[in-house]
Design brief:
Blueprint: E1 14-18, H1 22-33, E2 37-41, E3 53-56, E4 59-62, E5 68-69, H2 74-81, E6 88-89, E7 97-99, E8 109-111, H3 127-133, H4 135-142, H5 160-168, H6 170-185, H7 194-197, H8 201-208, H9 211-221, E9 228-231, H10 236-248, E10 252-254, E11 261-264, E12 273-277, E13 280-284, E14 286-289, H11 293-300, E15 316-326, E16 338-341, E17 357-360, H12 361-364, H13 366-372, E18 376-383, H14 399-414, E19 423-435, H15 442-454, E20 459-461, H16 464-467, H17 471-488
Parallel strand pairs: 1-2, 1-14, 2-10, 7-16, 14-20
Antiparallel strand pairs: 3-4, 5-9, 6-9, 7-8, 11-12, 12-13, 15-18, 15-19, 16-17, 17-18
This protein binds flavin-adenine dinucleotide.
Length: about 500
Amino acid sequence: MNARHQPEADITPSAVVVGGGIAGLTAAHDLRQHGFTVTILEASPHFGGCVTSHEVAGLTLDAGADSFSTRSKAVADLAAELGLWQDIVYPAQRGAWLQLPGSDPGASAQPLPSTGILGIPANPREPDVVRAIGNAAAVRAALDKVMPLGSLVKRDRVSLAEVVQERMGDQVLKRLVTPIAAGVFSSDPSVLDVDVVAPGLRAAMAKHGSLGAAVASIRADAPAGSAVGGLAGGMNRLTTALIDTLRGGGVRLLADTRVTGIRESGESSGARWAVLSDGAEFTADVLVMATDGPTAVGLLGESVLQLKEETPTPGAGVALVTLVVDLPELDVNPRGTGVLVAPGVKAQNGSPVVAKALTHATAKWQWLSETTGPGGHVLRLSYGRAEPQGEDRPEMWSDEKLYEQALADAGVLLGIRIGAEDVVGWDVVRWIGALPAAAVGHRDRVARIRASVASENGLEVVGAWLSGTGLAAVIGDTRARMRKLAHAHPPTA
Ligand SMILES: Cc1cc2nc3c(=O)[nH]c(=O)nc-3n(C[C@H](O)[C@H](O)[C@H](O)COP(=O)(O)OP(=O)(O)OC[C@H]3O[C@@H](n4cnc5c(N)ncnc54)[C@H](O)[C@@H]3O)c2cc1C
């Protein structure tokens, strides 16, 4: 390393982190702790990426992620290190609902069957599953128990849809799995790589002999308690706490600094990497790329030639409409913590419901309902389905058009009339390209990318496009990679 060219007092290795989302902030936090001098370069005016806040009707609300998976301790451990342990909370145990198509939307809504993974039931003969898919479809789905597995567990590239359809049939796919895949990944199950979105599922099928038994075994192995957690005040507090800690630790955080070029600078300049932004050059011994996939590959393509062939598909787009309403009728939480919407749902007057999901945030989080008080409610509707919609993609509609649609959709999905007069405040937030595509073959591509980056000295690449969507995956993976990076480049080298 070039540190040997520098005076004794200045041997602390330097790190530049490109991208100040949760991956970049976490990387900076860990590198700082490992003794690096760290600079973060973030293109937008704000840090946190998808973990950030907005103000609606005087409330500070999550504008993106609002919870984290508790399947690993990654997020809780980081929150604890940042002094947020006491603020970890769990959603109300009222469960979410499923809105299926039908002539009467009220009669076609039901609590989401609770024993599944991504909507795949452990036992398709359970009454709540039969209610969602019908008796004949449940009989078909139950064949999963007795049919031989065939090549499904051995084939190379398999989509979530193939697994579900082959084992449990069309109705489980359409009525249970598709709405959940749309809500979580903004994707259709036919494009999702089953090994990315449900890691371990095929291995469990091979072990237990059927899809239902695999789901049951994974559920049984899951940690006890709620599958997701949050923070009182919102997940955006994780970003705020990270920023405070980084600033306190002397990390340089530069917002409005879009990186436009990266090159290996060579020994003589004293640092391995040169990072360019608007005429400024930042040099570093260690470089961490923590942007979205297409940006990372675009910027690194000149230095790591193998990456050029691996440009990932841009991620899906989502628009979130937040409505803060004064509606005491919602105090009874008519649809639990929210509603996942199957394709093809219509209002009674025949107009389509465009939202793919509605979160009743004040029913989900006690801290929020205590903040709003009785009658005050926060509803968040998401737009942007996976299936092709031509040019008319709702996530690209004007704010006003989305707002009008959200009012209509919320009324249908919650089974009450909601008018503009009930609205205290509203906002539209767009996340275009923010949910990376976990398309079939993605796992192999990630392995190839990681192999080509591993050979580059002092370079690491992190973020949801590699680790998989979700804070648990991103934070866990980033921390593991920063340990390896610090080990390979110890501060006293
Ligand atoms: C609407 C929404 C809701 C979600 N809800 C949840 C949830 O409830 N629970 C959960 O676990 N996960 C959720 N997720 C997913 C989770 O938020 C993401 O997987 C995670 O935050 C991604 O973090 P990241 O750092 O990899 O990427 P990002 O947050 O996208 O950060 C990347 C950063 O890189 C910056 N950047 C890009 N190009 C450049 C450049 N050239 N120079 C400098 N900076 C650049 C960007 O501005 C951005 O700040 C949600 C995602 C969305 C979009």
